[in-house]
Amino acid sequence: MSNKMPEVREEHTHLPKKKEKERPSGIRSWGILLGAFVLSQIIFFFVDGTSWEPNMNDSGNILGRILESQLFTEWITIYSFPFFNLATTVFAIVILSTAVKEFLFK
């Protein structure tokens, strides 16, 4: 009896492997960022001025003072609910800072 293993032949070794298409990570991160911004704006638009607005007990803390400031009650008045104005402003700052960072450092 022979202890030889049968010979294994590799087929198609001369064919190149297909490369998978990869999306650049910058496009994906921008898509997620802008998608989240648009989704939040749609939600804010439909909830603003309705009984669905969050009932926030923000009097006396730092968030309450920020929301009651002139910046979010008179200058930035996209929505009637000041928290939505604050969230939109923060989101816009994040988007702009990301754009500047990518433009200057790439």
TrEMBL record:
It comes from the Bacteria. Residues 1-25 are annotated as: Disordered. The chain crosses the membrane at residues 27-47, 76-100. This is YfzA-like protein. It comes from Caldalkalibacillus horti. Keywords: Membrane, Transmembrane, Transmembrane helix. InterPro entries: YfzA.
